[in-house]
Design goal:
Blueprint: E1 5-8, H1 14-22, E2 26-29, E3 33-37, H2 43-52, E4 57-60, H3 63-70, E5 81-83, H4 86-94, H5 108-118, E6 124-130, H6 136-144, E7 147-158, E8 169-172, H7 175-181, E9 192-195, H8 198-206, E10 214-216, H9 222-234
Parallel strand pairs: 1-2, 1-8, 4-5, 4-6, 6-7, 8-9, 9-10
Antiparallel strand pairs: 3-7
Helix pairs in contact: 3-4, 5-6
Length: about 240
């Protein structure tokens, strides 16, 4: 019997692909989305004006959002930053930006609760987000009485491969990739779906995938997905 085949629906670094192979899997990399930073004459002044206005906080919910903020880090001047996911927090820290992260579940609802706990009174929370953002952060912030200000700082575009690769597992790392996968009819369904976190898992369930066919990593990282699948298939 050959090695189980995992289709990664996002780009992998060389060392990540090596980790997949070392864990006993064949790897296919075929991204279903691409993210492109907006660096146009409209977006940059919007971010500058929003930060200069002295918001109550800035929310970062992805690596791409972190990249957007890093370009304007000199304008933070003590504005608190809140992030989702250890990798996003680490990336911000590498570039001199400290941020607070929810404990436990990493999603927009948990981030909104943390911000409300830390920010007293009224004010605006700036969210540097994708053109395909999830609604949980905005919906939950509005319930707390804080103002939600969306700034689309990068575009997330769906990619449609000519054919989906044959695989045992399809690994997803964002709701947008799930949307891309199910945006066309396909009879070629993998045995399992791997998910980087509960937000992506919820998207898979909403798309009609039975929960028994979804493996969710305990930490939002490629490494955690690999290790979770290694336990599932190899018991290690």
């Amino acid at each position: 019997m050959g090695k189980p085949v995992i289709w990664f629906t996002r780009h992998l670094e060389e060392h990540q692909a090596e980790e997949v192979s070392a864990a006993g899997f064949e790897v296919i990399v075929e991204p279903l989305i691409e993210s492109i930073q907006r660096e146009d004459a409209e977006t940059e002044p919007q971010i500058i004006d929003a930060l200069n206005a002295g918001p109550a906080a800035v929310a970062v919910t992805s690596r791409n959002g972190a990249e957007s903020l890093i370009r304007f880090r000199t304008l933070l001047f003590g504005i608190p930053v809140f992030s989702v996911g250890a990798k996003t927090r680490e990336y911000l820290a590498e570039h001199g930006i400290d941020s607070e992260m929810p404990g436990g579940v990493q999603n927009g609802a948990a981030l909104a609760n943390l911000i409300r706990q830390k920010i007293t009174g009224k004010g605006s929370v700036i969210h540097l987000c994708s053109s395909r953002r999830r609604p949980e952060l905005s919906e939950n912030l509005k319930k707390t009485g804080l103002e939600y200000t969306e700034i689309i700082s990068y575009d997330t575009n769906l990619i449609q491969p000519e054919n989906y690769p044959e695989c045992d597992v399809a690994a997803f790392f964002s709701p947008s990739a799930v949307e891309s996968f199910f945006s066309r009819d396909t009879k070629q369904m993998p045995e399992l779906f791997a998910s980087v976190g509960m937000t992506t898992t919820s998207s898979l369930i909403d798309a009609g995938v039975d929960e028994s066919r979804i493996v969710t990593a305990p930490e939002p990282s490629v490494y955690s997905v690999i290790q979770t699948l290694a336990v599932r298939y190899h018991g290690k």
